Amino acid sequence: MNIGLIGFGTIGAGVVEIFNTNPDIIMKKTGMELRLRRVVDLDIETDRGVEIDPGILSTDADDILEDPEIDIVIELIGGYEPARSFILKAIENGKHVVTANKALLARHWDEIMDAAREHGVRVAFEASVGGGIPVLRALNESLAANRIESIYGIINGTANYILTRMASEGMEFDDVLREAQRLGYAERDPTFDIEGHDTAQKLIILTLLGFGVHVPEDELHVEGISSIRRDDIEYATAELGCSVKLLATARLNDGELELGVTPTLVPHHHLLSSVNGVFNGIYITGDFTGPVMFYGKGAGRRATASAVVADCMDIAVNPEGSMPTGPGIRVVESVRDFSRTSSRYYIRLDAVDRAGVLHEIAGAFSRHGISIESVTQKGAHEGETVPIYIVTHEASEGAIQGALSEISEIRWVRGEPLRLRIL
Amino acid sequence: MNIGLIGFGTIGAGVVEIFNTNPDIIMKKTGMELRLRRVVDLDIETDRGVEIDPGILSTDADDILEDPEIDIVIELIGGYEPARSFILKAIENGKHVVTANKALLARHWDEIMDAAREHGVRVAFEASVGGGIPVLRALNESLAANRIESIYGIINGTANYILTRMASEGMEFDDVLREAQRLGYAERDPTFDIEGHDTAQKLIILTLLGFGVHVPEDELHVEGISSIRRDDIEYATAELGCSVKLLATARLNDGELELGVTPTLVPHHHLLSSVNGVFNGIYITGDFTGPVMFYGKGAGRRATASAVVADCMDIAVNPEGSMPTGPGIRVVESVRDFSRTSSRYYIRLDAVDRAGVLHEIAGAFSRHGISIESVTQKGAHEGETVPIYIVTHEASEGAIQGALSEISEIRWVRGEPLRLRIL
């Protein structure tokens, strides 16, 4: 089997490193030699820190896409174009595709999978969610006999690193973000990670595999973690026995699918609360297998490359295919509007400490039919701004939004209230 | 695809239940109907609590093994015979086999896999380790590009339930065991689970997949948990920040494979320490993927049946085969004798509290070159028997055994000293 690699960046170099390091294992497990025949990148000058025959480097993707000797194309350039065109051309030319491109799959799933079906080739994408954690194949194949009930995922290492450090070191969000950027755990523009978009794209793929439903990214409810403060995490830990995690959720409720990306309080007794730092965890419940969790490094050169090469090996052994994914296996009738989903909520707001404020706040919750479990106001001097921590009983997102919208209009409330779901 | 099921016990009934409950999912994922054509058991009178056409029940295994219409044989009777003969006959008759039989695979791996290769059929066995946790396929296929460095498994739910309850309720071993038996978490004769034999058989299978090495069960070092007392767990928790777990270990050390089943102190910051109750966790480190953990229900009717049916579905989609396992992928030179493996150790012994005892004990460690990290003797009156808790620095098992053998000869030491490894 001959392989062409498009995208000789961080992960691409990791792929080359695996082929350099473990050729014996690859040979024994597949019964054949998987040969990296061509590596394409716009930049083939930069030293990637791995040994490679310069003769196989090229800047022209067609050296792979048009080479009839190449059986598998690995796409690691990311983004929509030219990745989409390269993948479609590879498929049309009868080549299998291995990709880590979650953005592309989340948006162009049908187009790519339909093309693959039409041309009788495989598109493998284990690396697109959870990096080196073998969660996608497990969800698709090993849990195949189950009706999936729920998927909860901590699937962004940057966000999880920040939340973990805020908790362990008592640091504020901005300080940890700067530290994460210095250590290379966060991008210079971290928006994609900390505002939940990366998590959302991965959730779309998990939802395709678990429920056969393709939700467009712009219809997904996505919240990030940038409004979370140290005192939120301290209150969650000390008073509620919870960790704060950026959670992707896909779960069945009365036959409807509930989806969202939300920072969420996870009780300490739940195994997901022990998924710390840059690690990822995906917690899946099937009707027969019960809860299972997958844990590991969700990103990084070596871990992600491990998933990419395993996909190549799987295609080499099973070129005919794996179990179908996507709309063909749809088992859910409808997706519930996020405003109709419900949860217990943690709410924190800042208000001037004076008589009557709590009464006004409580009134807003009451008018929206929300029942309060606890209210805590840290002592302060009359007239100072203090945080108020509220925990509600089960309430709908719509009701919470309505109440918070009223509350932010109250004269003595400062800034935007924060709401976090409680798992 | 027609399926024959031999063994209509607990898990067999779970298998029937999945085919009754999720036929739509099975059809969508495989693109075909998987039909349970025949169910064989010696007892076909007992009500198993699942709906089944009485016309497909039989007491004669040949009704499956000799039926040319049957493509897949599920073996769920367990044990060596007649399971082995049934499986070999199924293979000879060109049928694929799905089994949860860890004892049989651990002992007769080569015979069964050679026969399957010869006859071009598959033997799938996801349910044999970790019940509903999809760890075996992940290890074999999803981590296929890795050189596996270590596998640590909590893979016996009974033992883990007992250790968890001892810790959370401050109970003694015998009391929890009785409770576990009452709740159905422990067998009436619990030896197989609590003395580590079940864990050992599963470790043999994990070692075949991860390292391509087949270790006979009688060459494996196996310790159980029945000598562990409440005060050991209390000391481990409070003084050492560890949980006690019955751990299967397979790890590379200087190119040699170290194997064993040992009760082990797992630090609280390690995710394995959060695997509680009847749950299982398998923590695997590959040279590229880094550490990954798989968590879920390691036993039980529904979870185990989930793995069995997923194997049937996988065979239906990929009858040609999966990646090879076993000696063909061997990547390790030799297995290290357990006495040459090393660890930090926790040691607890009971001794009469009198001058000179600690000196004698310390002398034994010293003569075997073992360096002591801490010694704690709970206060008592002169002449009473009290526990002494010792933590060593890294020492070889052989040295520890030598020292403990000397120590148990000391006149003032009562009973057998307990030693637990520290992860």
Beta strand count of chain A: 17
> How much strand of chain A?
25-35%
Which structural class should the secondary elements of chain A be placed in?
A: alpha/beta
| Quaternary class | homodimer
Determine the mean pLDDT of chain A: 94
Number of helix segments of chain A?
14
The chain pair forming the largest interface, with residue counts per chain, is: A-B, 61 and 61 residues
- Report the CATH C-level class of the largest domain in chain A: Alpha Beta
Q: Describe the biggest sheet of chain A?
A: 11 strands, mixed
* Estimated radius of gyration of chain A: 24 Å
According to CATH, the homologous superfamily of the largest domain in chain A is Dihydrodipicolinate Reductase, domain 2
Number of domains of chain A: 3
What percent of residues of chain A adopt helix (DSSP H or I)? 25-40%
Distance between the termini of chain A: 46 Å
CATH architecture level-2 label of the largest domain in chain A: 2-Layer Sandwich
Shape of chain A: elongated
Task: Tell me the CATH topology of the largest domain in chain A.
Answer: Dihydrodipicolinate Reductase, domain 2
Question: Can you tell me the residue ranges of chain A where pLDDT is under 50 for at least 5 consecutive residues?
Answer: none
EC number (chains A, B): 1.1.1.3
InterPro entries (chains A, B): ACT-like_dom_sf, ACT_dom, Asp/hSer_DH_NAD-bd, HDH, HDH_cat, HDH_CS, NAD(P)-bd_dom_sf
Enzyme class (chains A, B): oxidoreductase
Cofactor (chains A, B): a metal cation
